[in-house]
## 1
Amino acid sequence: MTQHTTFDPNSDAEWEALRLLGHRMLDDLFDATRALPHTPAWRPMPSHKAALFEEAGPETGAGAEAVYEQFRQHVLPYGNGNWHPRFFGWVQGNGTPLAMLADLLASGMNPHLAGFNQAPAAVEQQVIRWLGEWMGMPGASGLFVTGGTMANVHGLACARMAMGERLGRNPRRDGVQHWPAQAGGDPVQPTQGPLVFYGSTETHSWARKAAEWLGLGDRAFVRVPTGADHRVDIGALQAQMAADRAAGLVPFAVVGTAGTVNAGAVDDLDALADVAASNGLWFHVDGAFGALLALSPRHRHLLHGMSRADSLAFDLHKWGSMPFECAVALVRDPAVHTAAFRSSAAYLGALPRGVSAGGQPFNDVGLDLTRGFKALKVWMQLKADGVHKFGALIEQNIEQVQRFAQRLDAHPEFERVGPSPLNVLCFRYLPAASSGNTSHEVHAEFVDEVNRELLMRVQERGVAVPSSTIADGRFVLRMAHVNHRTTDADMDAVFDALLEIGREVSAEFSVNRGQQAR
Ligand SMILES: Cc1ncc(COP(=O)(O)O)c(C=O)c1O
C-alpha cells in the first residue's frame, strides 16, 4: 500500500512538534508586538537579505522549523512599519493582538464564505447588520471585501447597474458596448450619451481605477473643484452637471468623500445627497477612514447626510485597526444590491436543507465567489471591547493630531499646509538656514529638497514613518493618524526629531549650496 500523502503531520510526534512550533510563533509575535515601542519604526532590509528572495522555487521541503526560522530572521524585522506606534504613513492601520488571533482561528477553520448554512455566514451577516445600524443605514445589504478600493468599486458598480436600468439600458446584458441592430434580435440599446459620475478633485484614486475597470473610461469621472476647505464646491458641481447634460452626457452618480486623503476633509454630504436626489442620481460615499467617525459621539455630526447614501464604502483596516484586509461595502436597498450581482450556476444551486440551504448570499451581492472569514476578527474585537472603545480611539487620534498641529503653529521653523480638521496633517519644515539664493523659486525648491531628505532620514533612522504628498506643486510631509498604539509621548518625540533632523539637513544643504555657488 502506498503511503497516504497530506499536508497534515504524519504521526503523533510530528503533530506535537508542529504544535510546539505554533506556540513559539505566537510567543514570538506577542514578544515582538510588546517590544514595538523600543524598536525602530522601520528598518531598511540589508542588501544581503535580498539573496533569499532570489532563490529558485523549492522542489523538496526544508521543514516547518527551517522556514519559520527564515521568516523570523529575514521577513519579520523588515515590514513597512505600520504596526509600530510611530507610524503615520499613508492611511494604514496597526492590527490588534486579538484580531491577529481571530485571523488564526479563521484560517484554521477555513470556512468558505460564499454563504452556506453555517455559523460563519451568520457572523458576517450580524457584523454587517451592526455596522449598517452604526453608519445610519439600518437594513442595508453588505459584505466584507479586501479594501476601500474594492468597496468603492463595488458601490459604483451597483450605481451603474441600477442607474443604467433606470435610464432604459440593460447594463448586465449589454455592458457599455453599442450593439448593432439585429433582425429579430434583442432591442438595440437606446442611443444615449456616455454615462458620467462626479466627485471632487480630492477623490482618492480608486475612482479613476473604477471608471477604467467598469469600462466607462477615465473621462467618465468628472472631477469637480474644491473650496479652500478641500470640500467639493457644490455650486461648481451643479454648474458642471448642467453643462454636461447640455453637451449630451448622462450623469448617473455623485460621489462624496468622508475623509479625504490629503486633508481629512469631509464633503458636505447632505448637500451632495440633495444634488443626487434632485437629479435622480445614485449617491455613493467613500468613507474609507472617515465613515468611522460615526462611532465617535464627538465627531459624528460631521457625517450629516451620509445616512442618505445609496452605497457606502469603508475600511476596518484603517481606523478600525483590523489586520489587512478588511473593508465593507454597504448598499441601502438589498434588492438593488442583489440585482446588480446575482448570477446562477447549476453547481451553486441551493436545496431546502443541508449545507447549501443557506444559499450564496455573499456571492449574490459581490464579485468574489470564494471568500475568507474576514468578519470574525471584527466580530471578536467588537464583542471583546465594545464599539465605544473604537470611538474613543478615533477621538484620541484626533486630539493627538490637533495638539501636534498646535505645536507646529507655535514654531517658526514649521508651517502647516492646508486645513487639518481631523487626523490628517500636512506640513513642512522651514529651514532657518539660507538656501544661498534669495529668488523665491529657488528657495522653494531648496525647502522641497530639505523636506524630502528630512522625511527619508526620519524613516531610515527608525524614528517614525510619516509620508508625503504634493500640495500646490510643493513637497509636504503628511501624517495620517489611525494608530491605536501612539502615546502623547510618541507624538512629542516625533515633533522633536523632525525639528532636530530638519535643522541638521538644512544646515548641510545650505553649506553645500554655498560651496556650489562659489
Ligand atoms: C479616502 C480613501 N479612499 C479609498 C482608499 C483606498 O482604500 P484601500 O487602500 O483600503 O484600498 C483610501 C486609502 O487610503 C482612502 O484614504
## 2
Amino acid sequence: MMNTILNINSQELLLNRFPKSNDKNLQAWDSADEYVLQHIAELNLDSANILIINDTFGTLACALNAYTLHWQSDSHIAKCAVEQNLEDNQLTPNITFLDSLTLPATAPDIVLIKLPKSNAMLEQQLHQINQVMTPNTQVIGLAKAKDVHTSGLKLFQKYIGETTTSLAKKKSRLIFAKPTVSKFDDNAEKLVSWPLEGTEVTISNHAGVFANTQLDIGARLMLENIPNNLDDGYAIDLGCGNGVLGLMVAHENPQVTVRFTDESYMAVASARLNCENAFDDQDRFEFDWHDCLSNYDYDQADLIICNPPFHQLKTVTDHIAWQMFNDAFRTLKHGGKLRIVGNRHLGYHIKLQRIFDNCTTIASNSKFVILEATKP
Ligand SMILES: C[S@@+](CC[C@H](N)C(=O)[O-])C[C@H]1O[C@@H](n2cnc3c(N)ncnc32)[C@H](O)[C@@H]1O
C-alpha cells in the first residue's frame, strides 16, 4: 500500500484516501488544503472552535487536531477517511461529526469550507453558515483557483458578507468573507422538485444530489428495463441518488422490500423523502448512509440495481464500480440478480463476467447498456 506523508506546520502526517490505494494520482490532500493550513498557522491561535466543511479525506481535521473541531460532510467516504487518518496518526482530537443537514450547536470562531462540486451545494452550505455565524466568525473558503468563479463569490457575498480572495498559490486560492449579513429566516434546505415523466411521481432532490434537476440519461434507460417479476423478497438500490430506480422497483414489484443506500447523506435523505411522497406504506423501505454494501451480510438480496459512478470527486476511476459489483456478488442470494446501467465504453461486462462468471445484455442504445449478472 502506498503511504503518503504531508509535512505541514511542523507536523508530519500520514494521509490516505479511503479506501487506501496504490494509485499515485489519488493523493489525500491538495494545494488548497496546504494553503489554508499555512494561513491558520499564521493566525497564531491558542484555541479556537473550528467548523470544517467538505474536508475530502480528513487532512484538515488531522492537521488542526489541537483545536475544537466540528466536522461536517455529505460524504460517508470522507467520514471513513477522517476516522482512518486520525487513527493512523494516533490523533484523538475533540471532534464532533455532523452530517450535511445538521448544524453545530455552538457558533464557530472559524469556518473552513472547501468549495463543493456545485453551486447548489455551496449555496445550501453558506446558508447553513449564515445560521450559525457571529460577527466575529472568520469564514474562509478554499479551492483550486480554476474552481473559484464569480457566481460562487456572489454566494459568499449574499449569505456571509464582504468577500475578498487571496493571491493564487500553487494554483489554489482562499476566499475571505466577513459576516455582516443578517440571519436568513427561510429554510436552509434547498430542495429541487421535478415530475418523473410518464408517472404521477414527483422527484425531489436536496442540493448537490446526482442529476439534480432532471433524470440522468442512463437512469432513463434503466427505468425502461426495471424487473417486474419479483413476488416478494428484498431489493437494493445501490448508489441510490434520489432513489428514482428503487422507487420504480417498488412500484413494479409491490410485495418487495427496498433498501436505498448511498454514500451521500443528502442522496439518502432525498430517497427517503421521495418514498414518503410516493407510497403510503413506509414499512417496505429501508435507508442506509454507507460505503457500497460493506455493512451487509452474505446471501440476502434477490435483486440489486445500480447506476455506478465512474468519478471520485474529479478523478475518473473504476474502483467504486469494482467495489459495488464485488459487494453485490457477496450480498445477493444464490440465483439473485445484479442489474446495472453504464456507458458502453466503460466495459462493465468484463468486470461482471469476471466476478459472476456470467453476464447478459438486457437492452442498449447508442450510449448506454443494461447488463444483468446472476449469482450462481
Ligand atoms: C451515477 S449516480 C446514480 C444515482 C441514481 N441511482 C440514478 O440512477 O439517478 C451514482 C451514485 O453513487 C453514489 N456513490 C458514489 N460512491 C459510492 C459509494 N462508495 N458507496 C455508495 N454510493 C456511492 C453517488 O453518491 C451517486 O448518488
## 3
Amino acid sequence: MRHRSLDMTAGPPLPRGYVFDNDSPHSARHHASLEAALDPLTLGHLREAGVTPGMACLEIGAGAGSVSRALLRLVSPGGTVTATDVKPGRIAPEPGLTVLTHDVVTDPLPDGAYDVVVARLVLQHLPERQAVLGRLVRALKPGGLLQVDEFDATHEPCLLAPSAEDARLYERFTTAKSALMRAGGGDPAWGRRAPAALREAGLTGLRIRPHVLLRAPGTPALGLQLHHLAHLAPRLLDHGFTPAELDRLGAMTRAPEFAAATGVLYSVQGRRPLRTPLSTTPSPEAT
Ligand SMILES: C[S@@+](CC[C@H](N)C(=O)[O-])C[C@H]1O[C@@H](n2cnc3c(N)ncnc32)[C@H](O)[C@@H]1O
C-alpha cells in the first residue's frame, strides 16, 4: 500500500522558524524530556572540554534552562551563565544566572565576551543558521569553546511495533515531522552538517560525537517524540493525518512491543582560534 506524504499545499500556511512553542501546554514536559534524555551527554562533553570555575558562558535558545543551570554549577564559584531564548519564561532565575529575552537571529551579542557558548537543538530550526553560527563564534573570546548539539532527524527508524501497519504509520509521522520542519525553513538533517558548518565559521580543533538513543516506553527519548506529536498534532491534521491515526500513534508507541531509535544527535565542539582572523564578516554591533 502506498502512503500519502505530507501535503504542504493543504491546510493553513506554516510559520517560519521554530516549529514547537515554549508557551504550549506540552512545553514543560517537552523540556523535561529534553533534560532527561540529553543533559547527561551535553554536560559530559562540556566537562571533558575543561569547563571550569570562573568561566563566562552563554547558552542560546536555552528552553527551560536545564543546561544553563548545570553549566552554572560547573563554573561556580566565580563564573557566570547568560541563558537566552525568544521565550525564556520557563527559565527560573538564580544568582549567577542572567536570563534574557533575546532573538539570536536579530538581537545583538557582545563581541569576544564568552569562554563557552552552547546551542542545543536551536540552529537546525533557524533558516539563518549559518549567519547565527558566525555571530556565536564572534561572541567567543579567542580560544573559547562552542558546543552545538543537533539531531539529524531524517532517519528515526521504527525497530519494533505491534503490527507492520503501525510501523508504517510511525515512519509516516517521522517523515511528516521532518517535512514540517523544512516547511518552516528548518533543516532536520542539520546535525550531520554541523561539523562542516563550524569549520566554515572559522572554528578549529573540532570534536564530533554522534549519539543514538532508544525510544521505548518509559524512556525520555520516547517522551520527547510524544511531545513532538502533541505539539504538531494540529498541523498534522491540517496536512493529511486523521484523528484516528494520531490516536493510534499515541497508543502504539506506549505498547510494550514498541521500540524505535532517535536520529543521530551530533555533539560538535570547536574553538575560536587565538589569533587567526575568522572567515566570517564582522557583525554590525562589533564595528
Ligand atoms: C528544541 S528547544 C531546545 C531548548 C534547549 N536548548 C534544550 O535543548 O533543552 C529550542 C529552543 O530554541 C528557542 N528559539 C527558537 N528560535 C529562537 C531564536 N530565534 N532565538 C533564540 N531562541 C530561539 C525556542 O524558544 C526553544 O526554547
## 4
Amino acid sequence: MDEVLIVGASVGGATAAETLARAGVPVIMLERDLSYIKPCGGAVPPVAFDEFDIPQAMISRKVHRTLVHSPSERVTEVEVAGLEASENDYVAMVCREDFDDYLRQRAVQSGAELIEGQFLDMQVDAHGVTVHYRERTTQTRQTLRVAAVIGADGAYSPTAKALGLPNLPRCIAIQERIRLPEDKMARWEDSADLYLGTEVSPDLYAWAFPKKDHIAVGIGAGPKHTKAARQLLENLKQRIAPDLVGGDIFMREAHALPMHPRRHMSFDRTMLIGDAAGLVVGTSGEGIYWAMKSGKMAAEVLAENISNPVQQALRHYDRQWWRQYGTMYRFLRGLQVWGYGNTRQKEVFTDMCRNLDVQRLTFESYMHKNMTPVPWLVQMRMTGDILAAQVRHYAPQMRRRVANATRNA
Ligand SMILES: Cc1cc2nc3c(=O)[nH]c(=O)nc-3n(C[C@H](O)[C@H](O)[C@H](O)COP(=O)(O)OP(=O)(O)OC[C@H]3O[C@@H](n4cnc5c(N)ncnc54)[C@H](O)[C@@H]3O)c2cc1C
C-alpha cells in the first residue's frame, strides 16, 4: 500500500496531486464540494505560469500598474517592473472558478483520482493512515486506508485539527464582485488599486482588482476587527463610490486567511501545505503561488520517501522550505507590522512605495520569489527616504507634544 490521500483539491491540493501522479505514486484527491469557488482576489505573479506550465488563457486580465491610496487619499502610482525590464512585468488576474478547475482536471489527466466528499477524521499508526469521510452524493460514511495524507484543506484545516494542532491566528477577507458599465470599467483597465486607512482596513489593506468583465472589491481585517468586516467593506465602497456608479453586485464572498505559518508542517505520514500550513505572506496576503509551491515541494519529498514516510524523512520539506523562503516571510511580516501599524505609518508606507528602489525590489521579490541582495548605496538611499518620510509625518505630532509640555511646565 503506497497510496496518498490529499484533503482539499484547490490550488495547493491539485498541484500536489499532479506532482505525485507524475512521479508514479497512486493518489486520491478528496474535495468537499466541487462547485465551491474559493473567495479570492486572484492576483498571481507571472512566475507561477512559467513554473507550473499554466496556459496564458487562464489569465483573465494583465495589470501593469498598482495605485496605492494613502489614508489621506494621496495616490502613489507603482509601475509593475523588476530590476531588468521583461515581458513578464505584469500581475496576472485569474478567476478562481476557472483556475482551480483547470489545475484539478490536469491532476486527473495525470492519473489522480478525484472523490467528492468531506474529510471527517483520521488515525495514524505505524503502518498507514485510516481516513473517514462522508461521500457527497450518497451522504454515506466511508473509510480509506492509505500510506500518507497531505492536508491541503485551507485556513480552517480539519486535517491539522485531526492531528491535534492548534488553530492558527486568522484574519478575515471579504469581497464583492461587481459588474460595471463599460465606461466605468475603463477606469480599471490596467490597474489594481490598494487602499490604506483605518476606516477600510485598520491593520491590513483594502483592494479593487479588475477581472475580464468585472472588478473584485474587498477588505482584509485582522483578528481584532473581524466583527467590523462588513462595515469596513461598506466604507470602502463609499470611498470609491464615484468609480462604482451603475455597478451590479453579483457575488459576495468571505473567508479566513492564516496570519502566520505553522512551526512544523510534516509529521509521521502527514504533511500540511498552503493555507493549512499558514503559508500566506504578510503585507500582501498572497497565498496562491505559495500553496502551489508548497504542494509541489511536499509531494516531491513524499514521493521520495513513500515506502517509509516517517516524520524524520518528511521534515526535509520543512527544512527546504524555510531555507529558501524564511527570510522573505520574516521580512514581509515585519513590513506588514511596520507599514500598516497606524494612520501615520500608512502615510509613510505610501511615500515609501514612491521610492523607485523600493518599487523595483518589491516587484523583483514578487515576480521572481527571491530576496535580491541590495547594494549598500541603494540601502542608504532607501533608508534616507524612509527616515525623511517618518520625519515628515511625525513632525507635527512631535511639535504639538513639545508645545503642550512647554505650556504645562
Ligand atoms: C478574500 C480573499 C482574497 C485573496 N486574494 C488573494 C490574491 O489576490 N492573491 C493570492 O495569491 N492569494 C489571495 N488570497 C489567498 C488565497 O486564496 C489562498 O492563500 C489560497 O487559496 C490557498 O490555497 P490552498 O490550496 O492552500 O487552500 P484553499 O484554496 O483554501 O482550498 C482548500 C480546499 O479544501 C477543501 N476542504 C476544506 N475542508 C475540507 C474537508 N473537510 N474535506 C474535503 N475538502 C475540504 C475546500 O473546499 C477547498 O477546496 C485571498 C484570500 C481571500 C480569503
